[in-house]
Design brief:
The protein is an alpha/beta fold. The protein has one domain: 3-Layer(aba) Sandwich (Rossmann fold). Helices cover 39% and strands 16% of the residues. It has five helices and six strands; from the N terminus they run E-H-E-H-E-H-E-H-E-E-H. Strands 1, 2, 3, 4, 5 and 6 form a six-stranded parallel beta sheet that branches. Helix 1 links the parallel strand 1 and strand 2. The chain is globular, with a radius of gyration of 16 Å. The chain starts with 5 loop residues before the first strand and ends with a helix. The mean pLDDT is 94.
Length: 192
C-alpha cells in the first residue's frame, strides 16, 4: 500500500443545489479513505456538445477537459432520470470524450454510485454510465456495484449518512475504490 493521495474528480449528475447526489458526494468527500482527495467537478455551465464547435471549443469545454486529464481517478454520483443518465451528465461525458481519439477520460480508474428514493437505486443510470465510460477506455471498478435506494431517508440533519447499513456499505465501497485506484496506478507505473 502507498501513502500517496490520489485526486478524484466527482461528477454529480444533478444540478439541484440540495440534490441527494450532491449530498452524497459531499458526505463521501468527508469520509473517504485518506488516500482519496475528492473534489466535485461542476458540469452544469457547459454548453451542449456540438461537433461544429470543436474547431474552436468553448472555454468551459477546454477547462473541463484539462481538469479531467489532471485527475488520478473519477467517481460518478448520479440519480436516474427516465431509466437513464441525466442529460447534464451525458453532456459532460460527451464533452470530455472529444475530440475523437483525445478523450480526457482515457485510462482513468472510476466508480459509479447511482441513487434513487425507490428500491432499485438508479440501476438504469448506473449501467448506462458504466457503458458510456467503458467505451472511452475508463477502468470502471467491477465490484461492488453501488445502487443506493431509499436515498430520501439516508441523511441526518447534519448532512451525514444516518442509515447504518448504507453508511457501512459506502465505507466499504470507498475502501475498495481506494484499493482499485492504487492498484491501477501501480500497474501504470510498472508499464512505463
Amino acid at each position: 500500500m502507498t501513502s500517496r493521495t490520489f485526486d478524484v474528480g466527482v461528477l454529480v449528475g444533478s444540478l439541484r443545489k440540495q440534490s441527494w447526489s450532491r449530498k452524497l458526494a459531499l458526505a463521501l468527500r468527508d469520509t473517504a479513505p485518506p488516500t482519496l482527495a475528492l473534489e466535485i467537478i461542476e458540469i452544469g455551465a457547459m454548453s451542449m456538445y456540438n461537433f461544429d464547435d470543436e474547431p474552436d471549443p468553448p472555454p468551459a469545454w477546454l477547462d473541463f477537459r484539462n481538469r479531467i486529464r489532471a485527475l488520478d481517478a473519477l467517481l460518478v454520483v448520479t440519480p436516474e432520470y427516465n431509466r437513464s443518465i441525466p442529460s447534464v451528465l451525458k453532456n459532460a461525458i460527451d464533452v470530455g470524450s472529444r475530440p475523437k481519439g483525445q478523450s480526457a477520460f482515457a485510462g482513468k480508474p472510476a466508480a459509479v454510485i447511482s441513487i434513487s428514493p425507490g428500491a432499485m437505486g438508479g440501476y438504469g443510470a448506473n449501467q448506462h454510465v458504466r457503458q458510456s465510460l467503458a467505451c472511452l477506455d475508463v477502468a470502471i471498478m467491477p465490484f461492488p456495484e453501488a445502487y443506493i435506494g431509499g436515498i430520501d431517508r439516508a441523511f441526518g440533519d447534519d448532512g451525514r449518512i444516518a442509515v447504518d447499513s448504507t453508511r457501512a456499505f459506502l465505507d466499504g465501497f470507498m475502501r475498495t475504490f481506494a484499493s482499485w485506484v492504487e492498484k491501477l496506478a501501480a500497474e501504470r507505473a510498472l508499464s512505463r
